[in-house]
TrEMBL record, chains A, B:
This is Precorrin-8X methylmutase. InterPro entries: Cbl_synth_CobH/CbiC (IPR003722), CobH/CbiC_sf (IPR036588). Pfam families: CbiC. SUPFAM superfamilies: Precorrin-8X methylmutase CbiC/CobH. Pathway: Cofactor biosynthesis; adenosylcobalamin biosynthesis. Residues 13-209 form the Cobalamin biosynthesis precorrin-8X methylmutase CobH/CbiC domain. Keywords: Cobalamin biosynthesis, Isomerase. One of its GO terms (molecular function) is precorrin-8X methylmutase activity. The keyword Isomerase applies.
Amino acid sequence: MNMENIEFVLPSEIEKRSFEIITKELEDMGKIIPDEEAPVTKRVIHTSADFEYADTLAYSENAIKIARDMIKNGAHIVTDTNMAMAGINKKRLATYGGEVHCFMADESVAKEAKERGVTRATVSMERAAELNVPIIFAIGNAPTALISLYEMMEKGIYRPEFVIGVPVGFVNVVAAKELFLQSDVPYIINRGRKGGSNIAAAIVNALVYGL
Amino acid sequence: MNMENIEFVLPSEIEKRSFEIITKELEDMGKIIPDEEAPVTKRVIHTSADFEYADTLAYSENAIKIARDMIKNGAHIVTDTNMAMAGINKKRLATYGGEVHCFMADESVAKEAKERGVTRATVSMERAAELNVPIIFAIGNAPTALISLYEMMEKGIYRPEFVIGVPVGFVNVVAAKELFLQSDVPYIINRGRKGGSNIAAAIVNALVYGL
């Protein structure tokens, strides 16, 4: 094994080629993805090399159009991880007026979470609810972020306009996603345990790139 | 489906509980992971909810000990993605004297890459080689970063001391990983297409947390 196995591909062509491979393999597997959702699902596969997402990503009715309209009108993104914030194309988002927020590293959030015996994600969502701007939530890590949003909704305190629900993990992740799959909040959610900050960022970027 | 399905777990217990579930499921699947490697492999599964990593993560001889000794002695981390840089516990790393570098967003890197018709990752690795400190490379995105390191090694310009090789994707990813699997550079590499910035960060953090 040496450099002979490395194929020369122009830097500008790598992403295009990757999407062609993904498209072909999805076809070979017989997986049909609606045209509107394909750019999002394919970008998630591009970022994970995991074709399982073709089966588990769930979109509420008109989710793509609703989210893109929000972004076009300047919606902000709130995420529960600094990694997702780092991965989101903030420059492109800013051309529509949007900003990305993550409150997880705020010292006051950590302090309040400790005092109340809740996660920082729980407090972060409460902070987001006070922002008073249209928000797309992009949850890539903490199921407690989804639970916090759901509880505020149940109590009539706050209602999220759009939820990208892709926390990853083993404790309450599946159940937290189900809360929103059963709600009437527009969503893009990955059923099951998988997800992550990279997936959250990929979904936001796919929405923005399609504008 | 409602809040009844949400289990109450103390925030401080969530990670511990997650690792218990991962350990049990690995046992149930009959997957044996050497004790030394288990904290790294399990943290990768924790960050991805993808048990396939138990089969595909490859460690060179004594990889964990070599990497941890380097960190203890103040090695720096160079990564090819800002997301991985955001995800690495820089505070803990700094207690040993280490810093994290990512040159991908440098304008001069972008400029040089464009002029030469190579990727920013290629140029970023060349910049890293000039740092003149012991480095653990944590490559979570670009196979061209691995190829760049390999080419410098072949030319006798630079030899990486340790490579975490977990780029993700469809173009040259498998072949770029093979270059290092066949070399005598100490490594932690995920065979195949999977990986990512979240995986790179998880591996670095597992190394640091074990010190």
